[in-house]
């Protein structure tokens, strides 16, 4: 007795007929297409076994239905782009959606590398330094008067030069006596500590922090021997080429403050009238 060879679904005999295997089970063409054939996105009909099934992102088309949604030209074996579930040839996509290069004004084709900055687009090869004409690519650049410059060219053409180190000032910087400085170059002449953001003073056009200026140039208090800076509203008393901090101008014997009072001198000492009456 001959062994049966039937369709797995309708059980019709497959002897002498075309069939398709799916998961090792045979199906007649009609059952296979009814059960498993993909539906064409364009015409809505099944894509039969004798047709080429073209797919893109889980969507399927007959070969004859795989065409541009605008101009209807075939997309088989051609580059295409997708926009809002529609397939477009590169010409139609470029005409409707592609940006124009800011430099050459030509369309930037889909799949082409491009550079974008503040709403404008360039071909990668068109995004170049205005001065040296070399491609900028992903390197840092600086815009100036509608043009883009690589950092070295911008520094050569526009950046201020630090009066101390003679190198370009690219960010920040300070101005002293109408001359530009790097923040890290603007330091105390004596101790070399940075002066940017700090109180400082100058002597003979050289800048000093307050501590160094006082140590080097301030007069010394006759009372405590510490410097009298005269800066920041510091008050002091001066008498016969000697100076005192206000807080140090006191009677040598009773320590009474003599600021605004009469006083007497005894050698290097100052005395209130009461303590000095026996002199």
From TrEMBL:
Subcellular location: Nucleus
Annotated LIM zinc-binding domain residues: 38-98, 99-160, 219-279
Domain of life: Eukaryota
InterPro entries named among the record's database cross-references: LIM_FHL1/2/3/5_N, Znf_LIM
MF GO annotations: transcription coregulator activity; zinc ion binding
GO biological process, any: negative regulation of calcineurin-NFAT signaling cascade
UniProt xrefs under Gene3D superfamilies: Cysteine Rich Protein (2.10.110.10)
A Gene Ontology term for the protein's cellular component: nucleus
Predominant location category: nucleus
Keywords of the record: LIM domain, Metal-binding, Nucleus, Repeat, Zinc, Zinc-finger
Iron as UniProt keyword: no
Listed name of the protein: Four and a half LIM domains 2
């Amino acid at each position: 007795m001959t062994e049966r060879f039937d369709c797995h679904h309708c059980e019709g005999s497959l002897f002498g007929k075309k069939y398709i295997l799916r998961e090792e089970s045979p199906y007649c063409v009609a059952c296979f297409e009814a059960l498993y054939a993909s539906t064409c996105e364009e015409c809505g009909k099944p894509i039969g076994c004798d047709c080429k099934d073209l797919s893109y992102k889980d969507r399927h088309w007959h070969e004859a239905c795989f065409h541009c949604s605008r101009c209807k030209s075939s997309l088989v074996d051609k580059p295409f782009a997708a926009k809002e579930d529609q397939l477009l040839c590169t010409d139609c996509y470029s005409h409707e959606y592609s940006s124009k290069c800011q430099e050459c004004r030509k369309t930037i084709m889909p799949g082409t590398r491009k550079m974008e900055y503040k709403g404008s687009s360039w071909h990668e090869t068109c995004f170049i330094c205005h001065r040296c004409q070399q491609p900028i690519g992903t390197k840092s650049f600086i815009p100036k008067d509608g043009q883009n410059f690589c950092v070295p060219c911008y520094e050569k053409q526009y950046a201020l030069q630090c009066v101390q180190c003679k190198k370009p000032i690219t960010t920040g910087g300070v101005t002293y006596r109408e001359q530009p400085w790097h923040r890290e170059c603007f330091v105390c002449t004596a101790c070399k500590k940075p002066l940017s953001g700090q109180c400082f003073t100058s002597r003979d056009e050289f800048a000093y922090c307050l501590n160094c200026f006082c140590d080097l140039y301030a007069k010394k208090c006759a009372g405590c021997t510490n410097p009298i800076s005269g800066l920041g509203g510091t008050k002091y008393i001066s008498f016969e080429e000697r100076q005192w901090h206000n807080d140090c101008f006191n009677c040598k014997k009773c320590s009474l403050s003599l600021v605004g009072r009469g006083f007497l001198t005894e050698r290097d000492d100052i005395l209130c009238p009461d303590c000095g009456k026996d002199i």
